Amino acid sequence: MEKKELTNKERLAIPPQKMPEQDPAKRIRNVNEVPLGFTEEQAVAEANRCLQCKNAPCVKGCPVAINIPAFIKLICEKRYRESINVIKETSILPAVCGRVCPQEEQCQAPCTVGKSLKSVDLAVQIGKLERFAADWEMAQPASESPAIKPHTGKRIAVIGSGPAGVTVAADCRRDGHEVTVFEALHKAGGVLVYGIPEFRLPKKIVGREVDNLIRMGVEVRTNMVIGKIATLDELMEEGYDAVFVGTGAGLPQFLNIPGENLNVVYSANEYLTRANLMKAYSFPVTDTPIARAKNIAVFGGGNVAMDSARTALRLGADNVYLIYRRSRVEMPARKEEVHHAEEEGVHLMLLQNPVRITGNDKGWVTGVECIRMELCEPDESGRCRPEPIRGSEFTIPVDACIVAVGNASNPLIPQTTPDLETNRHGNILADPNTLKTSKRGVFAGGDIVLGAATVILAMGQGRKAAKAINDYLATGAW
Amino acid sequence: MNKIQEKEFLSPQVFRIRVESPAIARKRKAGQFIILRTCDDGERIPLTIADADPHHGWIELVVQIVGKTTKALSELAVGDMVCDLAGPLGRPTHIELFGTVVTVGGGIGIAPAHPIAQAMKAAGNTVISILGGRSKELIIMEKKMRAASDEVIITTDDGSYGMKGFVTDAVQKLIDEGKRIDQTIAIGPPIMMKQVSLLTKKYNIPTLVSLNTIMVDGTGMCGGCRVTVGDKTKFVCVDGPEFDGHLVNFDEMMMRLAMYKDREKESIDHACKIRA
Fold it and tell me: What is the pLDDT of residues A277-319, one digit of tens each?
């Protein structure tokens, strides 16, 4: 019997599906993924909440403009293979993006369903549906590689295998160019492998999506520190016709407070790299050690701070204090991540700021002295500047600190490429539309241009850069 | 790539391996290092490039067995592959014509001192090399160092070879003899570099030290290797490894080096259990 089309009213009446999650008490003792994914029934029910708007405001909210209504409609019809293929036309990392994009600020923010129900939290859960389609494909014996145009004979070097570089590599490869990705670490994926923890993004999934790239014919070369083993000029002399720099913002910032070089004060980058890339959570089965502190202070309020705090719990901490100088509303972390962290028992210490880390005579951390803060009137940038409240200092005992107050761009490439213009923060200057830099044939995108941003914004930049690279290689016009 | 071409024990705990790596061999300069992993669950460790041949495409590493990873590396045979090898990393040594340069190599530090002595000599300097060790069998690469230097002084703590005493005694002797020293470069255990720096500071002799802190990535993205130089925090992997010995906070650095002592033992014990 032909199934009757649902009316918009009926669609709006379908409750948002709740993705099952690992129980907080259990999950803080393992590194397995927290959200378990939609069942097929849930995915179809959630997909049926989509109104298939003609103007598709959601697509405009997606930095890589995935054809969202189309892939969702195919899920309604249980045509999963076609659904994932629609996503893959524009996104090379659907299993990753479905998990880590801040959809509430992007595709789900303008969703008509959310607007009608007067809450962005009630919008169609596009990210979770994207994840469903990607996970469905990974469970199949084979995935379909996108079509590759005939060989052009042109060569492209992509520096960095993070989200920006991977997107450029895929898009340029599709156009028929020969693409080599250079990665400094021993594993490809950038922040997806060293930064975002296993429990948010299983490394197996990143590995599968990188493998798809290799299956398309992209060469991925690890252990290649560009700037050291070869400069951009040397790559171009070697015969690369275009270079894309997607080296990210991997330079950790410290607070420059006393005691920051004591033992067991980590940058979040170091802590997460040891835990994720080096799998220190399996030490001594794996060789890289990591401190197993019982009381840990994490400084910062972004996603990296949440990831560090939640990783610390999984490494056996009893108390994790997340110390943030502004209030909850200013926290840059995703609401979902803050919620998960609190659910797992992370203590949020808002409007407080570390001023000094104390240590014993052997040089180990014993505590952190903090000061309470208050928010003043918003300044010209619209941000409330936190000011310390005099005399409100207090100390909490901790045996480890993790500094997660942001990253700056890595200077290795600009340092060795004098004709590449950067701003005063060390970010490479690139045209916002074409991602062209000051150096002919060199494009740049992602965090090395934007400063520390998000996975999908990096991919969006990669998408634009790839188009510009493909145009440049076709016409030769700069 | 990364194939081990030669392996030789220089002393019971110190070995030399020659690894095929044409790209690094072509690019590296004196003072630089590599990061390697021996296997897939392995850790990343930094090792200084002791020698390289751009024509034949190899680099040489001199390694002291101190823990699980260096032991694993010592057990690889000629023909085996090193799983991951990244480099060259760090800033090269600043080489120029200073006049008389004294290179001080303590124990395993003799290996990284070698390419620097070579480069300093090639730049026209008079090179005096001091090689120090606890006892005779810990003095490595004597022949190579003689070839790279105008004069070689050997010291052993127990007097079993050369002059009895520490490398600082040899430096002091040169100073006492009225030898003009324009630049000193000290590489070895942190306590040795600290003592050399304290001594040369008294006589205002410019002194470079090559720091060997804990590292993870070696590319500047984690800060695990940070040290205080003057009043600034520096990353050894990208700002160094060489710094002005008179400005380095050695006490803080030695304290930080002890950070994983217990864990290192746990790792070795674990490896022993697996093998047993």
Answer: 999 999 999 999 999 999 999 999 999 999 999 999 999 999 9
Q: B203: which residues sit within 8 A by CB, 6+ positions away?
A: B175, B181
pLDDT tens for A330-347 read: 899 998 899 999 999 999
CB-count burial class (<10 Å; 0-12, 13-18, 19+) for A141: exposed
Measured between CB atoms, does A415 come within 8 Å of chain B? Answer: no
Contact B219 A184 (CB under 8 A): yes
Residue B276's pLDDT is what? Answer: 56
Question: Chain B contact for A258, CB < 8 A?
Answer: no
Mean pLDDT for chain A overall: 93
Contact A194, B224 (CB under 8 A): no
Q: Is B226 on the interface with A (CB under 8 A)?
A: yes
Give the pLDDT band (50/70/90) at residue A1.
very low
Size of interface A-B (CB pairs under 8 A): 120
Q: Which residues of B touch A283 (CB under 8 A)?
A: 263, 266-267
Q: Cβ–Cβ of A263/B258 closer than 8 Å?
A: yes
Q: What amino acid is encoded at A27 in this protein?
A: R
3-state secondary structure of A385: strand
pLDDT at A2 over 60: no
- Compute how many other C-beta atoms are within 10 angstroms of the C-beta atom of residue B68: 23
Q: Which residue has the tokens 């380095």?
A: B248
Q: Do A228 and B87 touch (CB under 8 A)?
A: yes
d(Cα B227, Cα A146) in Å, to the nearest integer?
Answer: 48
> Residue B114 is inside which H or E element, if any?
helix B110-122
| CB < 8 Å from A in window 31-50 of B | 37, 41-44
Q: What is the C-alpha to C-alpha distance for residues B224 and B216, in angstroms, rounded to an integer?
A: 7
What's the rounded Cα separation, in Å, for the pair A200 and A455? Answer: 13
A222 — contact with chain B (CB < 8 Å)? yes
Q: What is the mean pLDDT of each run of 10 residues along chain B (276 residues)?
A: 94 94 96 95 95 96 93 95 96 96 95 95 97 92 95 96 96 95 97 97 97 94 96 94 97 94 83 65
What's the pTM value of the predicted model, to 2 decimals? Answer: 0.94
| Minimal C-alpha gap between A276 and chain B (Å) | 12
Q: What is the reported pLDDT for A89? A: 86
Residues of B in contact with A362 (CB under 8 A): 255, 258
Closest among B249, B235, B254, B256 to B91, alpha carbons compared: B235
Instruction: Say if strands B226-229 and A347-350 run parallel, antiparallel, or are unpaired.
Output: unpaired
Query: Burial, A343: exposed, middle or buried (Cβ in 10 Å; 0-12, 13-18, 19+)?
Result: middle
Are the beta carbons of A462 and A445 closer than 8 angstroms? Answer: yes
